[in-house]
Predict the structure.
Amino acid sequence: MGVTGTGQEAVERAQELRRFEESKIGVKGLVDSGLTSLPPLFVHPPQTLSGLGPARPGPDPIPTIDLSGCGSGRRHSVVEDVGRAARELGFFQVVNHGVPAEAMGRTIAAVRAFHEQPVEAKARIYRRQTETGVSFFSNIDLFVSKAASWRDTLQIRLGPKLADVEEIPEVCRNEVIEWNQQVQRLGGLLMELLSEGLGLSPGKLQELTCLETRVMVGHYYPYCPQPDLTVGLTSHTDPGVITVLLQDQVGGLQVKRGDEWVDVTPVPGALVVNIGDILQIMSNDEYKSVDHRVLANPSREPRVSIAVFCNPSDRENQFGPFPELISSDKPAAFRQFTFSEYLTRFFTKELDGKSLINYFRA
């Protein structure tokens, strides 16, 4: 008896996914082949596509915070700014952060150079296994999402133990090692400011190993011939503590504020910081982890971004709202759990918004 209707469509989709995966060429390889329309596996459903497009013009809603003077009399003011941004929007940009502009430029250029190598050079590390700490793939949720998104990714483990240096592609090896050092330093400062913004001691988050596990993803969003039919990255929240993002000047990142989407307009020299789900949980809903997405790139100039996700390294430790933030007026909004349980839940779902954080609500 043959397969009919949606059953046949599911079989064909599975075959198409497998062919794409086994080709190891990624989305850039499709673009380089000269295609002028999207393969069906990249076409998103109407409910995803209906709200796509640039944000309405208006004042930039994403605050840009000047971190200069954190070691002096300005610290209290900076803590207030960071705390307010984390509570109100969950996203902010930082300038005068101590990361040299040259290092930012080198990192963007090196990740772009990796993605623009011949297919054969990248295919060697095209994999979904993470044992080596280095992998190249298209769409982390390729086999569980409703539709694939228009981007490729280089993923590298930075900590607690850096990936095998020989496995890191030579074209970006030195820059990745340098970027890890820069993010460690800046990440430590950001965690101090965020801890103080909750009225806690500066070292609170780092005492819980929140900076020790770091994973870098270097995303490449090539030109998309039909950007109204797909996305660069579907709407989601980040599962970790904080994310530190370096983006080029192409744009396309959007954040959900209330019922509307707002652009995270690239600011020269700035880095983007956002709150992850687990920090919203630890802050007992004080800080907000919010939905964000990336539009498919309509520009002939590729978009490159490098995100570093900071997570606890102690997977068996109990996590939940800080006791200092629980009271009779504000009881714990979330139950206790191990980070190991949390990660298991994350990797069994597609990137689709708040279902993860709601799973752990009390």
